[in-house]
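Loading example: each entry is read as three labelled lines plus one structure line.
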Amino acid sequence: MDDMRSVVEALVFASDTPVSVDRLKDVLGEVDRKAILEILQDIELEYRQRRGGLCLMELAGGYQFMTKTEFSPWIRKLRGIRPVPLSPAAMETLSVVAYRQPVTRQEIEKIRGVDVSGSLKGLLEKKLVRIVGRKNVPGKPIMYGTTKRFLEVFDLKDLSELPTLREITEMEE
Amino acid sequence: MDDMRSVVEALVFASDTPVSVDRLKDVLGEVDRKAILEILQDIELEYRQRRGGLCLMELAGGYQFMTKTEFSPWIRKLRGIRPVPLSPAAMETLSVVAYRQPVTRQEIEKIRGVDVSGSLKGLLEKKLVRIVGRKNVPGKPIMYGTTKRFLEVFDLKDLSELPTLREITEMEE
Amino acid sequence: MSYEVKLDIFEGPLDLLLYLIRKNELDIYNIPMALVTEQYLEHLEMMKALNLDLAGEYLVLAATLIHIKSRMLLPVEEGTGEAEEEQDPRAELVRQLLEYQAFKEVALSLDKRRMLDRDVFKRVLPVEEIPDEPEEAMMEVSLFELIEAFKQVVERMDKEDLLEIDTERISLSDRINEILEDLSREQSLSFSDLLKASRTRKSVVYTLLAILELMKMRVVRAYQSDPFGPIRIFPAVEEATDG
């Protein structure tokens, strides 16, 4: 069992995307899902308690080793990157896609009140947004949705973890 | 000091190449080389003693976390079922087939300006492209088109759902 | 006038309007149109004076504000029932503002989350660890990448080749495919509906060319019940007839 724990640790470490329990089961074979989940939780606890630079995080339907947030300034210095991955305009477009998906460009523009083609293209390039089909209305506009990478980047287990959108109360009330 | 150890661990983990002591000193600033070396040796010892899946290795003039060699068969198995992207060349050939089908190899080569027999063969093997007939011109060249698997991979109901070039160029404006 | 705010920080006309409402501590459900319209227009003037790129959407909202303001100045007609009182000319604008505001809040809260490559970092696979493509590998590709690849191919072609396979011809074959797709579902299509679905002049031309091309290829037939009646497009052959 101790050995299985090391194998799981090595497997999660060796992947550059979150590894799901199912995928680990495919690789490990005879071990059952519950045992794998216990191992993962055990590793998570160990890394949390030992106060090192790493932690095991659960996100986007899987597990992944990450650096702890408090060390981000150091790593940015090492990698030479600035902390602005997404502009406010891109964040707004991404939010509309996330909550209204599948959604067309025209629908996003109606909500944001501006042309969103630029920010939409940036999000497609960053693989945060993808084309999910066409809407069955005249002109058959393309519909967009979020990707698994979106979950990964924003530390979400799934879409249901998104913060709730404030209800719009009607004017008459 | 304990904190510095976590910073070093996070830095080594987040780097895609072995990190040298000098590089760490650049990032950390006031700490001296000897202290950094001690920290690295300390981390190395800890990972060796705890019998997990990882180890800190000294290689190519720097330090890097790696999975222990005895777990490599497992990792190869994980990688084998890992989704892989298509190469840019394959992607371009596939795009020409998708948008110009039915199309002959000669026509694809005229458009792409390079020999495409390699990428075409790869696409046939991956079952993204199939032979759809022969063109009624001298030499009767084989014509290629996309497959049902192509639709599945790109999550399309049918070919009419392919975005048009017009829709994509609109995004740039 | 003292403007301590930078003018290019607004994400659009709705954002500017929300800013004005907040700055004046106004009730979003009861916006004083005269005040807000005046300040909104002042901001536009400033933006113009500073030579900022003033997107057309700002002007559209300006026109909307002026329109709402003028409607509110109209005297309430005699005998208006309660049903009509509900028709506050501001209702649609308020709904739009609230919806936008909700998304703006959500965008801010997303931005506060622990973000990859900003707050946390994962390991970047060293080059030698990135595996070769195994034969039976699953594929992870997106439609966007496919079309970007095609765009690059087209962009690289010389002008001469472009004449042969140009973007227009691509649009034409797109339109042909769309019409065929619609026909297979609808049995027949009216000519005017087909044209109505085309929103730009260019796409009207493509639709016409596509229909002509399909008729030339004897794939579709056009029928007209009387000399000035609607024209309908039908598939030229029955689907079941084979060879």
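Strands of chain A lie at 54-59, 62-67, 103-104, 129-134, 142-146.
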